[in-house]
Amino acid sequence: MNARHTAAPSTDLDHQREAIAGLGHELRALVDATVRTVTPADVLHRVTDEVRRLTSQLTGRRRTRTEIPHVDEFPGGIRMFSPVTGPGNPLAPPVRVTPDGDGVTGHCTLGIAHEGPPGYVHGGMSAMLLDELMGWACSAAGTPAMTVSLQLRYHGPVPVETPLRVHARVTGTEARKVFVTGSITTEADGDRQLVTAEAVFVAPDPERARALFPER
Ligand SMILES: CCCCCCCCCCCC(=O)SCCNC(=O)CCNC(=O)[C@H](O)C(C)(C)COP(=O)(O)OP(=O)(O)OC[C@H]1O[C@@H](n2cnc3c(N)ncnc32)[C@H](O)[C@@H]1OP(=O)(O)O
């Protein structure tokens, strides 16, 4: 998501979300510049001091570990700070998720910050994209759930700086268990699956969910 191209805010919540996304967007640019730069040490020292100064401006009240941000819709909705889809999280590409006929599809482009082998995506990053999209597929099917098992096959390296498509769909349910499959392809070659995944998710029973997410 490019924060500079979002529509004019209509509510305080939209305004807050736009500000969060704007900061996330700039921080992603900073992260990208940081992992690509070949600038000399004196410049790096200067930037380090500037970044430390900026960080000190964000250390007022901070949310607690289990606090759900007021800008979020949990579960199954907007997660502004998700490490995968959150526009406010500089770790996130961020993935843009859309429903499709039989599940959900995520669209993103990963950068050098997500690199494993030179020029290709880190395998753990692919796992994170698939885990998240499979979670969205569970929510889209009406069963928000958590991963209990995730099996991946890496058929070919996933290129960085290349538009990607992540697909996930629920293949079956059995009581609280949800069975999900997923894949990663490039946008350009949607037939060639570079990574495939099979997962089991479990919807926590209500008592367990209350214990895990007390502020929900
Ligand atoms: C509100 C939600 C928001 C959800 C919000 C989700 C956001 C999405 C984020 C992306 C996804 C993630 O990263 S989620 C984060 C990573 N995952 C986790 O941290 C989950 C850690 N695991 C847990 O906390 C727990 O296992 C729970 C809460 C998920 C389930 O515990 P439980 O409710 O006690 O369930 P339990 O009785 O043990 O198991 C239920 C059934 O699943 C089966 N089962 C258990 N493990 C497995 C397994 N590995 N493979 C096959 N089947 C298994 C059991 O045999 C049983 O079958 P039967 O005997 O009934 O036949």
TrEMBL record:
Keywords: Apoptosis, Cell membrane, Cell projection, Cytoplasm, Fatty acid metabolism, Hydrolase, Lipid metabolism, Membrane, Transit peptide. Pfam families: 4HBT. Its EC number is 3.1.2.2. It catalyses: tetradecanoyl-CoA + H2O = tetradecanoate + CoA + H(+); decanoyl-CoA + H2O = decanoate + CoA + H(+); hexadecanoyl-CoA + H2O = hexadecanoate + CoA + H(+); (5Z,8Z,11Z,14Z)-eicosatetraenoyl-CoA + H2O = (5Z,8Z,11Z,14Z)-eicosatetraenoate + CoA + H(+). It comes from the Bacteria. InterPro entries: HotDog_dom_sf, THEM4/THEM5_acyl-CoA_thioest, Thioestr_dom. GO terms for molecular function: hydrolase activity. It is found in: Cell projection, Ruffle membrane; Cytoplasm; Membrane. Its main location: membrane. It is an enzyme of class 3 (hydrolase). It is a peripheral membrane protein. Residues 119-189 form the Thioesterase domain. PANTHER family: ACYL-COENZYME A THIOESTERASE THEM4. Belongs to the THEM4/THEM5 thioesterase family. This is Acyl-coenzyme A thioesterase THEM4.
